[in-house]
Structure formats: C-alpha cells, structure tokens
Amino acid sequence: MSSIYFWTIVAYMVFLVGVGALRSRGVASQEDFSVAGRKLSTVVVFGTMLATWIGTGSIFGFAERTYQVGIAAWILPIGGMAGILVLSFLAAKARRLEAITVQDILEQRYNKWARVVGVVTLVMTAVTIVSYQYRAAAAVLNLTIPGLDFRVAVIIVAVFIILYTALAGMFSVAYTDMVMGATMIVGILITLPFVWIKAGGYDGIAATLPADHMQFFGPISFVQALGLVMPGALLVLGDANMYQRFFSAKNEGMARRATIWLLIGVAYMEMMIIFTAWASSALEWQGGELQRPGRIIAYVARDHMPPVLGAIIMTAIMSIIISTALSYLLVPATSIVRDVYQRFINPEAKEKTLVWMLRGFVIGLGVIAYFISTFSEQFLNVALRAYTIYGTGITPSLVAALVWKRATTAGAVSSIVTGVTTTLIWEFGGLGESTGIDPVIPAIAISVASLVGVSLMTAPPKDEQLKPFFGG
User: Fold this and answer.
1) What is the pLDDT of residue 275?
2) How far apart are CA 261 and CA 271, in angstroms?
C-alpha cells in the first residue's frame, strides 16, 4: 500500500520539474534568475513567501513540540507572526531600493565590509538549513517505502532540489511555490477534521493525553517561551528569502499587500499544523514514547487515513519541505555571484555569464549541503541553531538600515559579529544546557547592544548614505 504514497510524490515532483522547465525559457539575465525580472504579482509573491516560510520547522519542529507539551505549543507561531507584522511596514521600502540581495542593502546603507560579513553569515546558515531539509524530505520518502535506504533517499531528494533550482531560479521557484502553497493549504484543511474525528474529538483526546497537554498554558515557562518564539521573529525580519521576494514584486504596493496576506496565511497554516499534531498525538500516543514525534502527522497520514487521502497529505508534507529547500539554495547562490563575484571580481560580467554562474553555484552549494547532511545527528541538532545565528546576526543591522538613521557601519558590523559569536559560544560551550536559557536571548541582547552602543560612539552616517532610505 505504501507504493501509492511514493508514486504520488514522484508524480508531483515530475509535474514541478515540468513547470520549472517551462519557466526556464524566460531566464535571460541575473534579474530574471534571482528576482524573476521583478514581475511577480501580489498573489504570486504571497504564495512563494508562504511556501518558503512554512518548512521543516513548522511541519516537523512544531509537531514534535506539540507531542511533548500538548496544545500549549500554540505559542510557537507567535514570534514569526509578530515578525511578519513588522515586516509588512518594511516591505515597501525594501522594494523601493531596487536591490537584488539583502547584502545590496547592507552595503548601500553601511559599506562593503557589511556586505562581506553579511555574505559569510548568510551562506553559512542557508546551506546548513538546506542540509536538514534534505534529511527531512528523505524521511518522508523513507516513510512511504520503509525498505528504501535512507542515504539513497537523501541523494534522490538532493538531486531533485539542486537540478530544479538550477533550472530557472526565482522564475521556477516562485510559480511552483504557488502550486506547493495551494497543496499545503488544501492538505492541512483536509487533515485536521479527519484526524479530529478519528481521535474522538476533544473528549477522546482528553481521555488519551496527559492533563497538562490539554492546557493552553501548559508546562512552558516564560523564559522557555521566549526561547521558542524569538528565533522565528528575528529570522523572518531579516530573512533574505523574504526580501528577495519583495525585490521580485512588480511594485512597492504589491510587496506590502503580499506581506499582509502572508500574516494571515502563516497564522492559518501553523495553527492548523499544531492542532493537527495535537489530535494526531492521541492516535499515536504510545505512552509519550513515540520514537520520532516530529513525524507524527506523517505517521497518521500513512497509518490512519485512507490511502488516497494519506497520499495527498504526504505530498503536502513533501511540498512544505521542498519549497523551503529551493529558496534557501537559491538565496546563497545569488549572494555569492552578486555580492562577491560581480561586486569585487568582475563588475562588468555579462548577463549570460552571471546566469550560468548562478546555476553553477546552486549546484556547488547543493552538493556541499548534501555532505553536511551526512554528518551525525548530534551535529545536525546543533545546526538547527542556524535560524538563531542568522536572526541575531543579520536582522538587527538590516532592520536598523531601514528604520534608524543613526545606525553606523561600525555598529552594524559589530552587531553581526557579536550576534553570531554569542550564539556559537552559548551553544557549543554548553551554557544553554547549564543555565536553561536559549542562546537567542543573550545573543540578541548583545547584538542589539553592540549595534546601538557602537553606533552612538562613532560618527553619524553621511547624508548620501541616508538619502536612498530616508529621502531628503
């Protein structure tokens, strides 16, 4: 029976390749490949942002936390939603700058060294994020055919994601994100009522799960809650994927409207995922000892649903994972070509050369992400800090570039360096485990303090630096 799940996913992936191949015909320049020629409508920008944001962290991370703490996990999306709300006020200004990468903004507002530090941080975190998207997608394939070797599944997924992204860049990613976004929305809409009824409704869930799993403010302390919600808020505020989609919109108004719609879409999707995982926990409780609780929704789709419906849900889960992987592979490739090669090595490079270099770096970074994915589980658990590293490193200086006139180059660079360094020291030094405080809390505090303190101690930026951002 598992073959229906596998072949439905394969057929879906083949369909996506077809869409990508059609779109690849329209790629003639760097802008086409990286920002879809700045031609995307509000609906397409919304769809591609939603598909990018709802990823492994949502479908596996939120599900695992829900299995552990119950319905109190509803707080998990709050950080991301708060960040998106703030982002809606920045979207129009970001689009107005006619940039291609976040690093374009950092150099324009600060200097070339801010661009360089930003590139290093972005590439390091994005490639790591892609690596565990590979593993997550391979896990879904492995669930459909348990006899499939996990390493082979990772290779299948990696090859698909690399080649698909290299086909047409943002042109293909954006439009297939629309398809994947629709698949997600419909899939989760079907799943929740089915699982709810199967679990016996509220009374059935309450009879199976521990009492504290039924409490909206269950076993999560205030400090733990901060550690859970802050990474999402910080990531989305500085997420290069989101800004690249702003840059892809036809105009400022479309970028802002798409971001407002994104807030509604994320609230719907992530809350539905948590409620689905909560109800699913009652079907696969196993005394709270389920071996891989992050896969709870996938288990229920495979083992408790009619095969056709289960195949739809498994395909929706695969869509959620693949869409994020595509985006996080495209962004660092764009950054290396735009922010390193074109900026420092060959400013006069021809458009055709840039497009082929973009494809080459997509393949190269995708291969590196594959090798990272083969590391131990212990390493990959630490790698999940990539969101925190990026959020505490890039976000403060990027947001300050758009809203605070007094932010200086020295302040921005010190913020990026201290945010990344503090996260790594806190994580690898075991301070998080010994203190019970998530690395995001000290890292963002030190990063913002460095930004503000160093900016106030150094000379204000020149008028020509401020004019594109604040007029005058």
Assistant:
1) 95
2) 16
User: Which parts of 145-251 fold into alpha helices (H)?
Assistant: 150-168, 170-198, 201-208, 222-238, 240-248
Q: Across the strands, what pairs with 249?
A: 40
> Looking at this protein, which amino acid is placed at residue 272?
M
Q: Are 49 and 91 spatial neighbours (Cβ–Cβ below 8 Å)?
A: no
Q: Are 365 and 333 in contact (CB under 8 A)?
A: yes
Q: Which candidate, 84, 66, 124, 470, places its Cα nearest to that of 277? A: 66
**Model confidence pLDDT, tens digit, residues 419-440:** 989 988 988 888 877 888 888 8
pLDDT value for 157? 92
* Chain mean position to CA 196: 28
Cα angle 111-114-118, degrees, rounded to a multiple of 5: 145
d(CA 12, CA 26) in angstroms, rounded, equals 23
Mean pLDDT score of the chain, rounded to an integer?
A: 87
Q: Would you tell me how many other CB atoms lie within 10 Å of the CB of residue 106? A: 28
- With a CB cutoff of 8 Å and minimum separation 6, the contacts of 382 are 427, 428
Kindly report the pTM of this predicted structure. 0.86
Where do the domains of the chain lie? 2-378
Q: How far is CA 259 from the centre of its chain?
A: 15
Average pLDDT, integer, range 280-288: 89
CA distance 149 to 216: 40
Query: What class has domain 2-378?
Result: mainly alpha
Instruction: Give tens-digit pLDDT for 335-386.
Output: 999 999 999 999 988 888 988 999 999 999 999 999 988 875 644 455 557 7
